[in-house]
Design brief:
With 447 residues, the chain is an alpha/beta fold. Helix content is 44%, strand content 15%. It binds adenosine-5'-diphosphate (ADP), magnesium ion and zinc ion. The site of zinc ion has 8 residues, from helix 17.
Length: 447
Amino acid sequence: MTESKIKDVLKKHFKFDTFKSELQEAAILEISKRQHDVLVSMPTGSGKSLCYQLPALLYPGKVTLVFSPLLALIKDQIDHLLALRIKAVSLNSKTLTAERNAILTDLKTNSPTTRLLYITPEQAATNTFKELFNNMTKHDKVAYIVVDEAHCVSQWGHDFRPDYLKLGDLRNISSVPYIALTATAGSEVMKDIVSSLKLSSAYKTFRTSCFRKNLFYDVYYQNLLDQPFVHLKKFIQSCLSTQDEDVPKENQSCGIVYCRTREQTEIIAQNLRELGIKALCYHAGLKNKERLECQESWQNGDFPVICATVSFGMGVDKATVRFVVHWGVPKDPASFYQETGRAGRDGKASKCRVYYNRADRKAMEFHLSHDLAKAKDKESRKIKAQNAIKGFTKIIEFCETAKECRHRLFSNHFGEPPPDCKNRCDICRNKKEVDERAHNFLMRCIQ
Ligand code: ADP
Ligand code: MG
Ligand code: ZN
């Protein structure tokens, strides 16, 4: 398959002049060869769908099977493809008989006109599907087997779906290349995907590096500071000082202070306001209308600082977040990565700071052991609770005793080699000072 043919399809069928990233291009070139299984791990919004939708058009007469966890996701994809005049269909519990028959008839012809068939994993277990699949593989009519949201195979993923585990069995019947896509990049999740889907040993991985080189990480200890709120205020002012007056209000620098509880969001916002910082608080206890107003005032730049529980952030897409503070203690490496990852989306230098304290650690530990006790012999809940404890333990090490680059918390978690930090964290910048601070903190705690 030539590169120019692929570029033609990109333009003619998908109306894009270029690939979204080098990684997207590399994945598409590899997948187009149909030689190896491929695992794609890129963040949400980075264009994973195209990685199989484009190659699906390169093999007329063959169909690409796509497993996707939710009917709503399937519908979105199909509407999108139909708008591009690409023949995509779905077999699911809601498909009407007449439509189902028309789909099956086409798929059973020698040269089906359907390009992509979307199915939920539950459907894969039905006799109709098994019979269809046998027919299609016997006559070499399947281009790819795609597993979207592939983290669903893993108990480490946040939405484990037992039906996904069966998808690896299709491997026994056919040698069609598997394409697995996920936005969850933890190394345990990746291992589970490879083993449950039985990816062949020569599988190729395309994965975005987790290292965000424009983010600077450091940790301070609340109990070593004379006036923690004044310290926080000065930090905020220094982060926002690069404010460019000519820029419209909504594009000016802003930031987020994450807190563990509602009360904390209120107390910190109040204290910051008293120190002259325009800060709001946001938490699940506010009425819907208040929450929206609050988010709006932050979004449009009226209030550049928001003190929030972690419920704030879903769907927040502001490019000019210059700092993310965790007041207290983050939950686990993955959440911490996601929350601090809201800083510096525009690629400009931004700061991520934890103001750590032992009280929050104790509160979280109480909460986590309570969850574990409540799980009793419910296996999946127990695994979740145990994972939560493991994740939290890593965060405690990060905050209290870290000796290595802060970015390694993430590269270890995501199973990547350590990045070249170039002083993008307090430890790499001045290890001696950090060691001293951590030492003083521990001494203060045992007093
Ligand atoms: P993901 O599955 O990784 O979350 P999607 O496949 O849903 O991402 O794509 C996210 C958005 O990126 C979609 O709006 C899609 O049309 C767009 N997109 C994908 N590839 C390109 C490209 N090469 N150029 C421009 N936009 C693209
Ligand atoms: Mg997707
Ligand atoms: Zn470092």
